[in-house]
Amino acid sequence: MLKTNSPIARSIQNSMYNTHNIRLGWVRAHVGYLGNEKADELAKEAITYTEAEVFTVALPRKQCETRWQRRRDDGINGRSKYEVIKKVGLRNHNWPRQLIQFIIGHGPFPSYLFRFGKHPDNCCACGQPDTPLHYASECHLTLSYHLRCPADQHIEAWMKSITNHRPLTNKITDLLNFIPSQEDLLKSEQPE
C-alpha cells in the first residue's frame, strides 16, 4: 500500500485490499463527469513522468495467503508441525534455519535423506531409527546436545515452546551444526 495521510485514499486502499474482485472501467467521454478532467490531466502527467515509483499491489498476495492457509488447514500432511507453525505467511519469525529444520524434520537427518535416495537407510549410526528428537534426546553419539524431551502427548507443545526459549534454540542450533560436521560418525554405514 502507498503511504498517505488522505482519508479518502486510505479508504480506497482498504477497499481494494479487502475486495477480491476489482473491475477497472473506462469512461469514453468524460465531459460532464466530475473529476474526470483532473484524472485525465493526472494520467497524462503520470505517463510522461520518468521517475515514477514502482510498487506492488498487496491484493494478489492476500488472496494467495488465504488459499495457502485454507490448504494448510484442510491438509493431511504436516499435522505434527501444524500446532508449531499454525499460520502461514511470509512473516519472518527470526528463527534460526536449524530450528526450522529440527521442527519440520527436513535437515541433515538420514530419515529425511533416505526419502530422496541420498542415504541407504533411515537409521542413525547407533542403529536406531533417526529423527530430530532421537538426536536431541536418545542417541549416545550426541549426548552433549541432549535435551529433556517430554512425553509423546506433549511433544507438539514442547516444540512450540522451544521457539521462544533462546537457550534451547541455541542448543538445537548447535546440534544441527554438529550433525553434518560429523556426518561419517552419525550416518549408518552403506551395506556392501
TrEMBL record:
Domain of life: Eukaryota
Pfam family, one: RNase_H
SUPFAM superfamilies tied to this protein: Ribonuclease H-like
One Gene Ontology term of the molecular function aspect: RNA-DNA hybrid ribonuclease activity
Segments passing through the bilayer: none
Occurrences of domain RNase H type-1 (ranges): 1-48
Designated name of the protein: RNase H type-1 domain-containing protein
